[in-house]
Amino acid sequence: MPRSRLGPLAIETKLGDHPSQSCVWRAIHVQLKRAVAVKVFATPFGGTPEARAEFASEWATLKSLQHPAIAKCYGGGFEQTDAYLAYELIEGESLSAQLQRRTRLSWEAVLDMSEPLIEALAYLHKLGIIYGAIQPDKILFAGLSPVLVDVRTQRTGTGYRTQRPPTPDELKLLPPELLIDPSALSPQTDLYMLGATLYLAVTGRPPVNGETIEEITANIANVDPPAPASLVMECPVWFDKLIMQLLQKNPAARPNSAQAVKLALAEVRRRSMSRTGVAEHASSGFSPLTVTSQDDREVARRLLGRDSLDFDDDAPVHDVAWHDRPFVLIAGLLLIVGAFAWVIWPLNEDQMRERAEDLLKVETRTSMMQAKNSYLKPMLDRYPEGRHASWAEEQIERVEMKQAEHALEVKLNRNLPLKDEAERLYAEANQFERFGDTATALDQYRSMVTLLGDDPNYRPFVNLARRQIGKIESEGVDIDEASRMIQAKLDEADQLLADGKVIPARKIWYSVLELYGSNEKVAPLVAKAQDRLEGRAEKTTPSLPQVENDPNMTNATAP
């Protein structure tokens, strides 16, 4: 177990889905007051000077990486026999935890997850960096956005790495070439492990199974997994084929680059939104709708259940099978033409609204985007003066509000720069509201509407501000609320300090300074927070609350 301090970091608690096996800790950078995730490596004698220099060079490279789907590295250091790397702390749930809770994810959710991940891999590969360890526990979610954690430039061949062997669950996601040579890392190994992770997320099971390490390794080398679409019928054939190509045993048979996979995923999304599901399945490969050969019969039995198909393998074979007779072929052709016409026939306004409503009811980011792009915008383009035009405009604004709010939340959680004045003003007002000062938040939202209300580029955030104004006004607001709320927060911080909870108390004082440092109306209360941070006040006595309310007395804090 590492010491309570590592350089400028104060170590708190272990992180990870399995803390007993983890070497990653939550820590606080004492000077910057920032929470980080720190990975600790115990090395006998602290490593050779050459190894330490190589490790320092690695963390310098890691600090330069900038990608929204990669957890930022803040650097590293040495402390006696320990070395460490400090990363951005992602507070969200891991993919591993999600799968333990839900068994598997919908193919739409997996597609949403795969696109940022392949962009991150393409970014790393362009820089000559192989991630080399894609696993469900190394994919965390910041809001709805997946983030790769624990990026290394030297995954093997260094003393500063995890020494434990892979668990059976981790082994099941490794490509065959790494079983022969663990240092044989290449872009294709990353692609295989991404494919194995997507397979696990879609189907709820790994590509290979086995009871022992020997059985697992033999299956990885020799056994091809069943296609995802044979286990999860709603998985589109295009996604199915891409995952299976990523899982090819021969690295040369996999896609030639992450960029190629990115293009393939874009094609999967395009086709999945074009409503060409069953017909595309049938034309792209096996379909349970057409069963002819003995091999197809076996696949159909596995898909639909042996008892659900009444095949008579010993039935006599006629010269002309019934399905080859002219009237059957003509009828089949008419059905295909009718189905094709139904697919491409333009929807009327009522049908477009009905389908948009079905997607909007799901209330996921993917479904709302699909409703907007596939039905709401085409409805306005085709029926600009239609009876549902106003409704479509309202729904588009609602979807764009949800998109903007989600994007801002991800940026705030990850300390990313805000792109414009609308994001900055809304984030500032929302911070006051979350802190409990609805009066100041209301003023901020109103000024935002006044300043930006006429600019269509800022419409989503202006609409969000209007929504919050209506909410606050309906609940009522008190102009003296700020003073009472800040005093209540200071009292809360004093109680936390009295209970020995220094870090939560200091967070409250910092929040008061950050939010109200320039507000002259509450300057005395801000000064109290400043005094407590600088240790200029006497210690609080919780049993005498009247001391806190006496303006002639000095509020206290711990040294």
UniProtKB/TrEMBL annotation:
Q: Name one GO molecular function term.
A: ATP binding
> Start and end of every Protein kinase domain?
1-266
Record's protein name: Serine/threonine-protein kinase PK-1
Q: Which organism is it from?
A: Rubripirellula amarantea
Q: What is its EC number?
A: 2.7.11.1
- Where are stretches of biased composition, namely Polar residues? 540-559
Q: Does the keyword Lipoprotein apply?
A: no
Q: Does the keyword ATP-binding apply?
A: yes
Q: Which domain of life is it from?
A: Bacteria
Q: Which Pfam families match?
A: Pkinase
Q: Which PROSITE patterns match?
A: PROTEIN_KINASE_DOM
Kindly list the residue ranges recorded as spanning the membrane: 327-345
